[in-house]
Amino acid sequence: MARKASPSSAATTISRTVQRGELSTLFLKPIKPSCITASQHEKFLKIDCKNGKINTTDAFNHFDHMLQMQPALPISSFNLLLGSVAKNKHYSDVISMYHRIFEANLVPDFITLNILLNSCCNLKKVGLGFAVLGTIYRRGYFPNIVTFTSLIKGMGLEGKISDAVQFFKKIVRLGCQPNVITWGTLINALCRSGYSEKALELHRKMGSGDDVSGFKFQTNLVCYSIMIDGLCKEGSVDKAKELFLEMEEKRVSPDVVVYSSLIHGLCDVGEWEEGKSLFIKMVDQGIRPNVVTFNILINALCKEGKVKEASGFLDLMIQRGENPDIFSFNTLMDGLCLEGKVDDARELFVSMAAKGQECDVISYNVLIKGYCNCRRADDAMRLYKEMVRKGYKPTIITFNSLLTGLFQDGKVGDARDCFTDMQLHGITPDSCTYNILLDGFCKNECLAEAMELFHNLEKSGHDLDIETFNCVLDGLCKAGKLETTTELFDTLPLKGLVPTVVTYSIMIHGFCKRGQLEKASNMFLEMEEKGCAPNLVTFNTLMRGFSNSDRATEVIELLQKMAERKFLPDASTASLVIDLLSKDERYKEYLTLIPTFPIQT
């Protein structure tokens, strides 16, 4: 006969937690009349639970049936059910069931408590996990490495990385030997939280036995894979390469996941050729690249502007029997659009269905943006109407691309209609949307409309960033309203905004356009004093102002400053210098003063 559980058990702790509302995800299921036959119940426990093929409704129905059975079932039967529910990641249901076991005066054993502890930790309630650990000790059980691994995982999920490392070292010192799962759990926690180098440091110590515990541990493929991926994502590609070589030295054969992670890391830091060499090495080793590997290479090539080579990898993927996914096609389409080959992108878009891949909203967004960038707003609108007709829900990216394209083509009325359509689709404009509208209205001589929108945004308490003000300042400047522009610029510090190089360049252009060169020059000095470095546009803008006033000396001084900062002049710089020299009798003297710029490689 089952004896009543001690009131000091974990169930009491969890019950109180539920009462205090600390675990809002936990709930108690009411007992329902049971209509389950003995044979159904036996099959459920012996086959379904062991295979993990259950759903929560079936689990609770059988659980209710088990609680009503007389004589009472052994706790091992309940453990089988709880374990299966936990494997299906219904952790709050596990805790609810445990509470009911406690109320039914059944005594949980070590396995029950381990399942409960693991569920608490997976719910990011590691404090409750330690409460269960206390119950384990009080019941006279000895926690094992599974118990400790669950706690380490819980601390990792809660971001208590330092605690997890210290706890790991503590259990080693206590003589509890971690297994590969424990080690992998700690490594994963460190790498997921951005501490891959710390994981590498721990790996070195544990691998050599130099840790204070004296424990020596051999890292397996999974752990190497996690560390290499983490190091690459954090930009420590050289250390990832060292770890890769260490794997090979220790005869731990890298798999496709390791190769893909390192190739991705190499491509991200611009070492494309080395990434390609590693790909070739992987194939030579007989390791079959998967769709992720190919996508990494296709994406890297498109970013490098090598779209033809990227397309070749797509063909190679298909030849090797690897089906491209939607990311493969979208990436290649985007690469084609960036090269201005929007018609080729459209052909690829149409061919997707024949290659067994259905397009998605991202596919439409890529092509719509491509049309807009090529000043083909009408084609973009037709594609937008097609996606809506086919049941694809447009996103904020869709509308921001369309608005940009329509304003660029001077279709202000269509842009207004598009903005209205955006709201009809339930899409909330973001700061980028408003900046596009403000910039579009200003550049299409609708300054009054832009200012009305700007003031409405201010009144509504909308969080306006410096880019928003740049749009308005530029519009006011180009409309010749320099006084209003200056007044608005002076309010920026009061709004907690710091002018950028774009902001200063706009103001300098405005002063130069009005012929107020001293103010423009002072603005240039002010930006430097405030730590905002001028760019080539800023230099060209101020030089053009001086050039138009035949102030060659100031132009030469600015050229010398450019050379000191290793700025390379562009076509605009060369044009204004030639124009200035051609109309000044002292051009030979000025030629000797023009600095030498490094040749661009």
Automatic annotation (TrEMBL):
Pfam family, one: PPR_2
NCBIfam families the record matches: PPR
UniProt family annotation: Belongs to the PPR family. P subfamily.
Descriptive protein name: Pentatricopeptide repeat-containing protein
PPR repeats (start-end): 144-178, 179-213, 220-254, 255-289, 290-324, 325-359, 360-394, 395-429, 430-464, 465-499, 500-534, 535-569
PROSITE patterns per UniProt: PPR (PS51375)
Upper classification of the organism: Eukaryota, Viridiplantae, Streptophyta, Embryophyta, Tracheophyta
Record InterPro entries: PPR_rpt, TPR-like_helical_dom_sf
Keyword terms of this UniProt record: Repeat
